[in-house]
Amino acid sequence: MPLFAKWTPLPHQLPNLSSHSLAVIADKAYLFGGELKPRTPVGPEVRVLGLKDGSVRTLSPPSTTTLWPAARVGSSLASIPSTNSLYVWGGRGGKAMKAFDGDEEDLWKFDASKEEWDAIKTEKSVEGEEPERRSYHVLVAGADEKSLYLHAGCPASGRLAALHSLSLTTSTPTWSTLPTAPSPPRGGTVLTPVPDTPLLARFGGFAGYELGGLDFFDTEKGEWVDVGDESEAKFEGKKVVAVMCLGEREGAPAELGHDGAGFFHSDAWALLASPSGTSPKDTYSWLALPPSSSSSSTPQARGWFASAKWGDEKVVVHGGLNEKNERLSDAWVLEVVEEN
């Protein structure tokens, strides 16, 4: 049977946000950071969404001396469900609205059980392997949840193609530099582990223009594989391993930059894996997912939103920026379903 995108709106009353981050542990989603006005971070609160009961709680620092990350935009929130932990690194904020440097902070860890933050000091395994400070990067946990992977983003000037891993199994989390990704350097890209493989999949991003292309990093072999722009495939006999939706298709006019809005996608795609494939090149392909008949409505086109995987089969999406340059507050669940 063909596959479709089932969209379900969530009932939560949430703030209008873009350039924020979202992560899911069990049946709770966590929102952190972001902006309502360009380059003006909202507060440092953590919003906790009950994905099944529709509840929303806002966690704020109880005092000025409480360990708590500063408000920021363009950060990334990674989850380790097995330890009920979230991690935040980087982003842009402070009085100068620049990337946080190592003297200001390093890595933040949120204990979702205690609902407390802790400032974690990291170290580099080899001199010079500490990652450059940045925003609009991606931070994601590996499939084994023993390491975090940091990729791409925007430093003080330009964009990055660097990839780093942060081991969480040592007494002090330790950075290592991994092979640089295929060009061009970019911000706003996607990196996600592929289930039951040592692979990380990367798609898209912004390098002064919108990027396509599908790459994989093999965490065991330590090498990148460029798959390119794969054409649409048929689902028969294949497995859905990832889902992609929405996003920017054309940037704002150069003279407006971050103050303007571009043009956005409203579609959804599934990344398929063929069991007969012998390499990433002949294993993975994209399948367009039209809205299902069970979707009473669908989200408007947007970019600069936050999203995260919920369990093995769903994706939670919140907020973003539309083509009218409005920050959005709605939240959705995307699920891949079969229909006749």
- Rounded mean pLDDT is 90
What is the topology, as strand order, of the major beta sheet? 15-19-18-17-16
Number of strands: 29
Number of helices: 1
Decide which structural class fits the backbone. mainly beta
Estimated share of beta-strand residues: over 45%
Query: Helical amount among residues, as a percent range?
Result: under 10%
Low-pLDDT windows of residues: none
Q: Radius of gyration over alpha carbons?
A: 19 Å
Q: Please report the distance between the alpha carbons of the first and last residues.
A: 6 Å
Tell me the overall shape.
globular
Task: Provide the succession of SSEs.
Answer: EEEEEEEEEEEEEEEEEEEEEEEEEHEEEE
The main sheet comes to:
5 strands, mixed
Summarize the entry for a quick read.
The chain has one helix at residues 280-283, and strands spanning 3-9, 21-25, 28-32, 35-37, 40-41, 46-50, 56-59, 72-73, 76-80, 85-89, 92-93, 98-99, 107-111, 116-120, 123-124, 138-141, 147-153, 160-167, 174-178, 190-193, 199-203, 214-218, 223-228, 239-250, 263-273, 284-288, 306-310, 314-321, 327-338. The protein has 340 residues and is mainly beta. The strands form eight sheets. A five-stranded mixed beta sheet has the order 15-19-18-17-16, with no helix packed on it. The chain has a four-stranded antiparallel beta sheet with strand order 1-29-28-27, with no helix packed on it. A four-stranded antiparallel beta sheet has the order 2-3-6-7, with no helix packed on it.
